[in-house]
Structures are given as C-alpha cells and as structure tokens.
Amino acid sequence: MEQEEQGFGLVEIIVAMMLFGIIMVSAAPVLVSSISASAKSLAIANATQFANEQIGRARGSQGSCDSFQSFINQPPPHAYDGRGGEFALTIVPSHWTDDDVTACAVPGAEKSYPYTVKVARTSDPTTVLVETTTMLAVPGVG
Questions:
Q1: Is 111 or 15 the better-scoring residue by pLDDT?
Q2: Cα–Cα distance measured from residue 43 to residue 123, given in angstroms and rounded to the nearest whole number
Q3: How many domains does the chain have?
Q4: What residues have CB less than 8 Å from 120, skipping those under 6 apart?
Q5: pLDDT tens readout for residues 32-77
Q6: What percent of the chain has pLDDT over 70?
C-alpha cells in the first residue's frame, strides 16, 4: 500500500519562507522611499495651505492703510499640522517704508506692494518648503 502525502512538509515551508524573505528584503527600499515621499508631500501640502492662509490674511488687511500697517507690524504666526509638526512662516520685506507710513492719509491714492510668504519646518528652517508672492494694493498711500 502506498501512502498519499497530504499537506506541506517542513522543508517546503522553510523554502517558501526563504523566498518570501528574499522578496520582502528586495521590496523594503521601495516601501521606505514611498513612505518618505508621502511624508514630504504631506509637509508641502500643509505648508502650501499655511502660506495661502497668510496671503488671505494679508489681502483681508488691505482695506485701509492703517489696517495694512497694523498687519505688517505683526509677527507671522507659527502653524502646526495634525501630526504635531511646527512650521515657521517668514515674510519677505514688503518694501513698506517709513515714508509710506506717513503717507497713509492720501485720499484716493493707492500703491501696490509685493508680499512674499516662505514656509519652512521649524526643525529645518533653511529648507523652504513653499514660497509664494502676491501684490497687495493698499488704498490711501500716495
């Protein structure tokens, strides 16, 4: 009588595990790089959102010369993402001079200023994730 084999033997299972291990070791760098790319994309998306919010606040302040002057004198806020990452917003000088402050009372006049926002992680402030510029028209400046 011949005996039929049923199931897998120990050697077959060990060979299958070795093959699975080799495949996983070769796929690990791809998985690690995709996780890193995903984290970087998320940081850039958050930084873009924070920059756009700051531009929106700047546009909201351009209703009068005094409100724009008050806005320019405030330090930019720090922003936090949902994962606890902190982002620093940097405002590039907007060419707002002392002469413009004294010229705030010119009725009917309007002057445009470039307003640039740079966003970087607080942990690595030298690497700018996002930089955006807009022109702000400020009424009352001659």
A1: 15
A2: 12
A3: 1
A4: 47, 87, 88, 90, 126, 127, 128, 129
A5: 999 989 988 988 998 899 888 888 888 888 777 777 777 877 888 8
A6: 83
DSSP state of 137: E
The CA-atom distances, in angstroms, between 19 and each of 4, 10, 66, 136 are 26, 14, 71, 62
Long-range contacts of 66-70 (CB under 8 A, 24+ apart): 66/104, 68/96, 68/136, 68/138, 69/96, 69/101, 69/104
The parent domain of residue 53 ranges over 10-139
Predicted local distance difference test score (pLDDT) of residue 37: 92
Looking at this protein, which amino acid is placed at residue 28? A
Q: What are phi and psi of 95, to 5 degrees?
A: 60, 25
Domain-embedded: residue 79? yes
**Structural domain includes residue 5:** no
